[in-house]
C-alpha cells in the first residue's frame, strides 16, 4: 500500500531528490554529491516536509564525512540551520551524531541514515492504520499542505491516514487546500491524490470555513513540523485557522506525526521557532510580480495550533485524544 513516489533516494555516492519546486508540471531530479548541496536543496525546498528533510539531512552527513571525516560538526550545524521549524531535521541529525560519537565510521553512519529512512515509512504505515480507525465510513475530510509520500519516507502522515482509510473504503471525499503561497496542496497533494485515484477536490485556503458551514465535514487531518510538550502543534501556515473553523463547526481535528516530531524541550507552542521566508514568495509567483513593485510582505510559513483545538494526536506509538501535557508525556514514555 505504500506509495511508489520516492522523493529521496540514496544512491550510495549521492542523494537523488525529486525536485518538488517544479512538480507536477515536471518530474526533475537533483543529484546531491555534497552536504552543502543537500543543505541548499532543503533550504530552497527542492525537498520539503518535516520527515523528508530529516531523512535528507541524515544522508547529507554521510556525504560530508565520506569526503572529509573532520567535517561532521560543521556539516551538522549547516544542515540543522537549513530550515528552523521542523524538529525532525535536528532529531535525525542528533541520532546521526550519537552513532558518529560512539563508532566514528562511515558505514555505521550510512546504516543509521538508511534506518531513519526505513523507520519513517514503517511509522507512517502504522499511523495510517491508527488514524483510519478514527474515521467513519463515508468520511468527508479536509487536509492541508502536503503530508504524503513526497513529504516523508513514504505513505505519508496525514495523507497516509487518508490513503489507509481509502484502502478500507472509508473515504467519500477529500478536500485539499491549495496552501498559499507555495501551493504544496494544489501542486503536490493533488498530484498524489490523483495518482491514487482518491476522490478529491481542490479548495482555496479561504474556502475551508465556508465549506464547513454548508457541507458535512467529519475531520480535518493535518501533519506537524513540531509538537511541544503540552501538545501545541506547529504546522503549515493556515493550520491554526482551520482548527479554529473546525471547532466552530463541530468538525473534529486530527494531527498525525511520528515521535521524531515531538520536541519536549519546548514546553508550549510559544517556544517553537516559526520560519519566515522571503517576501518575494508572496509578492510574486514563479518570477512573475503579483503585488505592486517594492510592496512589503509578512511571510511566516508555519503557525501554532493550541492543543485545546486538537481532538486526536496520532503517532506510531498510539493515539491521544484531546492531548494535554500529561497524556503527551505518557505517549512518549
Ligand atoms: O514548508 P513545508 O512544505 O516543508 O511544510 C510542510 C508541512 O507543513 C507539513 O504539514 C509537515 O511537514 C508535516 S508532513 C509530513
CATH topology of the largest domain: Rossmann fold
Topology pattern, helix = H, strand = E: EEEHHHHHEHEHEHEEEHEEHEEEEEH
Distance between the termini: 29 Å
Strand order of the largest sheet: 6-5-4-7-10-15-16
Number of domains: 2
Strand residue percentage? 15-25%
- Work out the radius of gyration: 19 Å
CATH architecture of the largest domain: 3-Layer(aba) Sandwich
Roughly what percent helix? Answer: 25-40%
Form type: globular
CATH superfamily of the largest domain: Translation initiation factor eif-2b, domain 2
Low-pLDDT parts are none
Mean pLDDT: 97
Count the E strands: 16
Biggest pleated-sheet summary: 7 strands, mixed
Q: What is the top-level CATH class of the largest domain?
A: Alpha Beta
How many helices does DSSP assign? 11
Hetero ligands: 5-S-methyl-1-O-phosphono-5-thio-D-ribulose
Alpha-beta classification: alpha/beta
Amino acid at each position: 500500500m505504500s506509495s511508489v513516489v520516492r522523493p529521496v533516494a540514496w544512491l550510495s555516492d549521492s542523494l537523488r531528490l525529486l525536485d518538488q519546486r517544479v512538480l507536477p508540471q515536471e518530474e526533475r531530479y537533483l543529484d546531491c554529491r555534497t552536504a552543502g548541496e543537500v543543505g541548499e536543496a532543503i533550504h530552497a525546498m527542492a525537498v520539503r516536509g518535516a520527515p523528508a528533510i530529516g531523512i535528507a539531512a541524515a544522508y547529507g552527513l554521510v556525504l560530508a564525512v565520506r569526503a572529509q571525516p573532520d567535517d561532521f560538526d560543521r556539516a551538522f550545524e549547516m544542515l540543522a540551520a537549513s530550515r528552523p521549524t521542523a524538529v525532525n531535521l535536528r532529531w535525525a541529525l542528533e541520532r546521526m551524531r550519537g552513532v558518529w560519537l560512539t563508532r566514528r565510521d562511515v558505514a555505521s553512519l550510512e546504516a543509521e541514515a538508511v534506518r531513519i529512512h526505513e523507520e519513517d515509512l514503517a511509522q507512517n504505515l502504522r499511523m495510517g492504520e491508527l488514524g483510519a480507525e478514527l474515521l467513519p465510513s463515508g468520511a468527508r475530510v479536509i487536509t492541508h499542505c502536503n503530508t504524503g509520500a513526497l513529504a516523508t519516507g513514504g505513505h505519508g502522515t496525514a495523507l497516509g491516514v487518508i490513503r489507509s482509510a481509502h484502502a478500507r473504503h472509508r473515504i467519500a471525499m477529500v478536500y485539499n487546500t491549495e496552501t498559499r503561497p507555495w501551493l504544496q496542496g494544489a501542486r503536490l497533494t493533488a498530484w498524489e491524490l490523483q495518482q491514487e485515484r482518491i476522490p478529491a477536490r481542490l479548495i482555496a485556503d479561504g474556502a475551508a470555513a465556508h465549506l464547513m458551514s454548508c457541507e458535512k465535514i467529519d475531520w480535518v487531518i493535518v501533519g506537524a513540523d513540531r509538537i511541544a510538550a503540552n501538545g501545541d502543534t506547529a504546522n503549515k501556515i493556515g493550520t491554526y485557522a482551520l482548527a479554529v473553523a473546525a471547532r466552530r463547526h463541530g468538525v473534529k481535528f486530527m494531527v498525525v506525526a511520528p515521535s521524531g516530531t515531538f520536541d519536549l524541550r519546548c514546553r508550549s507552542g510559544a517556544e517553537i521557532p516559526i520560519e519566515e521566508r522571503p517576501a518575494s514568495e508572496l509578492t510574486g509567483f514563479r518570477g512573475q510580480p503579483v503585488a505592486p513593485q517594492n510592496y512589503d510582505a509578512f511571510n511566516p510559513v508555519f503557525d501554532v495550533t493550541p492543543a485545546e483545538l486538537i481532538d486526536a494526536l496520532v503517532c506510531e506509538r498510539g493515539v491521544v485524544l484531546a492531548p494535554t501535557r500529561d497524556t503527551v508525556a505518557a505517549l512518549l514514555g
